[in-house]
Amino acid sequence: MKASRGKKRRFISSASDQEGTPLSASRTAFGHIDPQSALREVSAICRDHGVQFTELRQRLLLTLWASSVPMTAYELLHRLEETWARTLVPMTVYRALSGLLNVNLIARIESHNAYVSRSTRSHPNASVFLICTQCKSTIEIQDVFVEERVNESAGRVGFQVQRSALEIHGKCARCLGGTKLDLGAP
User: Fold this and answer.
1) Is there a contact between 117 and 106 (Cβ–Cβ < 8 Å)?
2) Domains and CATH numbers, the chain
3) Is 41 exposed, middle or buried (0-12, 13-18, 19+ CB in 10 A)?
4) d(Cα 138, Cα 129) in Å, to the nearest integer?
5) Residues 9, 29, 38, 146: is their CA dihedral positive or negative?
């Protein structure tokens, strides 16, 4: 797909509202009103991709939905051990995270070696993660224009993109003193 110069960019975002308040699981879970309907959709997505939606994967996803900051595998492991009253092995958590990554339900923030829930699965290679250097909150926007430009540039040199995520570090609206952030198209 080639983007025309006059075409409006399409942005999709999640993670926090304009006040910087983390969104509830129901809001970050693909726009569902309640977490249970989001979990049903996730279960169907996993089933369609041949990935078991185990209780551990469900708990990992719920924990990430509830967090406004990226979490490392060990932070997730400790949080689950506290809330689930079970001892977990790191490799088990990494395997569960891998399954969620493979179906684009979560993303890995490479610079932090941490994970976040995805706001949408529609254009996973269009993800731009805005990471606050002060409070560590992360906002995912999907900019289809960026995706098209990256694919076009990679194609020119004979490279096929399998996975991409752009990380941009700066300060969020809340840390800038409450300035509202407009994520609408420019």
Assistant:
1) yes
2) 11-170 (1.10.10.10)
3) middle
4) 6
5) positive
